[in-house]
Amino acid sequence: MPRDLPIIDAHHHFWDLTHNDHPWLRPDHPPIPFRYGDYSALRGKDFLPEDYDALTGHHRVVASVTMEGEWNPADPTGESRWITQLHARTGRPAAHVAQAWLDRDDVEEVLATQAAMPLVKGVRHKPRIAAAPHLVERGAPGSMSDPRWRAGYARLASQRLHFELQAPWWHLDEALDLIEAHPETPLVLNHTGLPADRSAEGLAGWRAAMLRLARAPQASVKISGLGLRGRPWSLEDNRPIIRETIEIFGVPRCMFASNFPVDGLCGSFVTIYDGFRSAVADLPWADQLALFHDNAIRTYRLSLPLAAHLA
């Protein structure tokens, strides 16, 4: 029998669509372009702690971190306030990554408000992205190289907030520029740099970009979001990406995460976490504890004991 492994899920969502406003998930809102294609299975459906718990199966999730779920941007702190209330009622989540729009006039006020909530450890602002590597436009409004956007990023350190980046790998050089300009701000790359193109050329581009980003010790990565449009999640598809990511960044800078309920469009929680565990089953037990548990404690400054003593 496999050894008991405590898991901290480093990236998932909760939403209560009955009471809260996530425009992209409302049945009456036009569907948005989505990397997994049809996401109608998510629309109009709440996802709360009891829904999460019903999916984890034999995996022992001891804590988790919620990610902003594109709450109505007219109220960028509303989701964090709701998550704080949810935590008060249920003890969940252990930490939250909040919404912030770094190029807005109200960024200073929003960051201060977010940082004042103890659960909030970092923020995410999905920057403007290009559809392909050759279409990247440096300095484009809303991009990571936009001076206005960068000015907002410069405010994170004073609030003790790290930054979470969701962007395809061809924008990672812009992220490296940000890190070099603001080395005091940690950056957590979401969803493994989005290696959706699994062609030899696509993987070569992803690998080179990840190697460049990994030169910055302030950068870490969440191994998550590995689903492929139109294909069920499989270890065969994803083991090479998982192992290369760990090789590039090293065990101390990698974390596993479910991205649920979104990645439920590609596979069950049990399938995905069984795959994660199988992909690293040959690594030392201390490394497995770091990847599934301890690295999340350090990244999100959680008041939980490390599991390294179990090694």
Concise summary:
This is Amidohydrolase family protein. The protein is an alpha/beta fold.
Task: Explain this structure.
The protein is an alpha/beta fold. It has a single domain (6-310), classed as Alpha-Beta Barrel (TIM Barrel), CATH 3.20.20.140. Helices cover 32% and strands 13% of the residues. It contains nine helices and eight strands. It has an eight-stranded parallel sheet. The mean pLDDT is 96.
Tell me roughly what share of residues is in helical segments. Answer: 25-40%
Individual helix count:
9
CATH class: Alpha Beta
Shape label: globular
| Total number of domains | 1
| CATH fold naming | TIM Barrel
Low-confidence stretches: none
Largest sheet geometry: 8 strands, parallel
Write the CATH architecture name: Alpha-Beta Barrel
CA distance, first residue to last residue: 17 Å
Category from helices, strands and their pairing: alpha/beta
Spatial ordering of strands, largest sheet: 1-2-3-4-5-6-7-8
Provide the CATH superfamily.
Metal-dependent hydrolases
Blueprint (SSEs and pairs):
Blueprint: E1 6-12, H1 49-53, E2 60-67, H2 78-90, E3 95-99, H3 107-115, E4 120-124, H4 147-153, E5 162-165, H5 172-181, E6 187-189, H6 200-214, E7 219-223, H7 235-249, E8 254-256, H8 269-279, H9 285-300
Parallel strand pairs: 1-2, 2-3, 3-4, 4-5, 5-6, 6-7, 7-8
Helix pairs in contact: 5-6, 6-7, 7-8
Keywords: Hydrolase
Domain Amidohydrolase-related: 8-302
Protein name: Amidohydrolase family protein
